[in-house]
Structures are given as C-alpha cells and as structure tokens.
Design goal:
This protein has helices at 38-41, 77-82; strands spanning 5-7, 29-31, 50-55, 89-94, 97-99, 105-115, 122-125, 134-151, 160-164, 169-179, 193-195, 199-203, 206-212, 217-218, 224-228, 231-237, 245-247, 254-258, 261-263, 266-267, 275-277, 284-287, 293-294. The chain is mainly beta. The protein folds into two domains: 1-47, no CATH class; 50-226, Pectate Lyase C-like (3 Solenoid), CATH 2.160.20.10. It has a 19-stranded mixed beta sheet that branches. The protein has a two-stranded parallel ribbon with strand order 1-2. A two-stranded parallel sheet has the order 17-21. The longest helix is centred in the first third of the chain and has 6 residues, at 77-82.
C-alpha cells in the first residue's frame, strides 16, 4: 500500500500541512527518499472521519452528491449504504418516509449508525426481501439502529431482521418499534434475530404482533450484552419451547434481563411462551434488580 503524500527532494524542515489529516494508521508521508519515519508520519495525524448520508423516499439516487444533507437526500437505504467506507464511521439518517429495501444491508468492518426520525415517522419494511435474507447482516463491524419502525412484512417465511455471522460483529438496537403488518397466517420459519457469533444489545424497544415457528431471538448466551426496558407483546410461536428466547447457558455464562415485560406471548404447542432456559451447573440468569440466580449442581 502506498503513502498518502510523497514529497520529493529535500529542503522541507517543518510540517508543511495545516489542519490536514489521514484516515490510515499506516504509511502516510514519504519524504525525500528516506525510510518511513514517525516524524514525517506525524505531519499528517490520524483522524477518524465521519461520513453522513440522508435518505428520503422522494430523494434522488442518481444525483452524485445525494445524501450530503437533508435537502438533497438519497432515495434508498441501499444506495446510502453503498456510499459507506470501511475506514470511516458512518451515520445514515432516515427522514420521515417509508422505505422498502430490495437487498440486504450489509456491514463489513464498518461502524454504522442508522438513525430514524421517530417510530411514527421513519418506517422500514422488509416486503421486498427474498428468501433467506436478513434486513441487516453483519460480518464484522458495529451496527446501531435507533428511533424507527421495522415492519417485518416480508412474504418469504425465511426472511429475518438481523443476522451476525462474525465474532467481531456487534448490534445495538434502541428505541425501535418492531412489528408486522403481514396478513398471511403462516409463521416465519427463521429466527428474526439470528446471532451465530458477536453480540447484541436491545434497549427501550417494543416488539409486537409477530408469529414464528421458532424462537424470535437465537443467540448463544455469550452474545447477549443485555436486554433491557423492552416490551414483547403478542409474540406467538407455533411449536417448540420459548417464544421469545430459548437458551441453554453453560460454563458460568450469564443472561441479564432488566425491566422486561411479556404480554400475550405464547407457544401454541410447547412451553415457555416468553422464555425457555435450560440451566446448567454454574450458569446464571439475572432478572431486574435481582443480582443473579445461580443454578448449582
């Protein structure tokens, strides 16, 4: 990989740059044929840049400058995601609109914040996603989603909302309304939150009117940072145990649930309409203000 800046010849004895930065931590300044030096690299300090994009349903994806501010927004979330860079923190603002992404919104080594304009104003629908897709897919990186409604109305039963496949992937969901306007009586056959590795945190969300044939959230206990201040309403699992969470903590793993409510959640054929927890020796579960309940041998 080359340098950001090359300076040929000599005679430059002090930093020629003013309020200039680089986003790479590696080679930045090559000066006068000398070897790379921290002195010269210091002329161009590292600064994490912030990339912001605005999106509105009446925006224009064909405008090369779309998304730079709220007066020239992009039209689709997919297009805004396509403008992300792996080395830059990205914020995507969803203005008052209804969005229907037609492809997965992928995060690979990015730090991305998707910020809505409120759960009654910014709505993301999954109706255009195809089989086995997820609205958000994280391999590596950090995704935060705030202040919007996710209407999980996909026709395909195997469409999910969030998947994490890499150990360094993290998701933070806050102030969301997650529901479904789907008219079909059949159940989603895939966990809507499918966390193979990485971690997930859910805070101050409302999750309602969802029907599945498996647990709503599938994740190893080690992946749960915390679920707090969240209400689950009318989450129905057609068969199996644990309508919202089914888990088997092992090897001193712990699960923390703080200020959670379940209303009308049930398993039509099975037990544990909200939770099914198979405790193992040494594992812990924490409910609310209770420090923990530990299950011994």
């Amino acid at each position: 990989m080359g340098n950001d800046v090359r300076i040929n010849g000599g005679g430059v004895t002090s930093n020629p740059f003013f309020e200039s930065y680089s986003t790479t931590t590696e080679k930045r300044v090559f000066y006068g044929g000398t070897a790379d030096s921290e002195v010269y690299n210091g002329w161009l300090p590292v600064k994490v840049m912030l990339l912001t994009r605005y999106v509105h349903e009446n925006g224009n994806d064909s405008d090369e400058l779309c998304g730079l501010n709220d007066s020239i927004p992009c039209k689709t979330i997919e297009h805004a995601f396509g403008k992300m860079r792996y080395d830059v923190e990205c914020k995507i603002f969803l203005l008052e609109s209804v969005f229907t992404p037609s492809s997965v919104l992928s995060i690979n080594s990015n730090k991305v914040k998707v910020i809505g304009n409120g759960t009654d104003k910014s709505v993301v629908r999954t109706s255009m996603l195809s089989n086995s897709a997820a609205l958000f897919s994280i391999n590596a990186g950090d995704l935060s989603v705030f202040s919007l409604e996710i209407d999980h109305n996909a026709v395909a039963e195997t469409v999910g909302i969030l998947s994490i496949s890499g150990s360094s992937g993290t998701a933070n969901l806050k102030h969301l309304l997650i529901t479904s306007s789907r008219a079909q009586p059949t159940s989603f056959s895939k966990p809507l939150f499918d966390i193979a590795l990485g971690s997930i945190s859910i805070d101050s969300c409302i999750v309602s009117s969802l029907r599945t044939s498996t647990q709503l959230i599938r994740a190893p206990i080690s992946s749960f940072s915390e679920i707090s201040n969240t209400n689950f309403t009318e989450v129905i699992r057609s068969s199996g145990n644990g309508g919202v969470i089914e888990c088997n903590p092992i090897n001193e793993e712990s699960l923390s649930l703080n200020n959670i409510s379940f209303d009308g959640c049930k398993c039509e054929s099975g037990n544990g309409g909200c939770l099914s927890i198979m405790m193992q020796p040494g594992s812990k579960v924490r409910f609310g203000e209770i420090d923990s309940l530990t299950f011994a041998d």
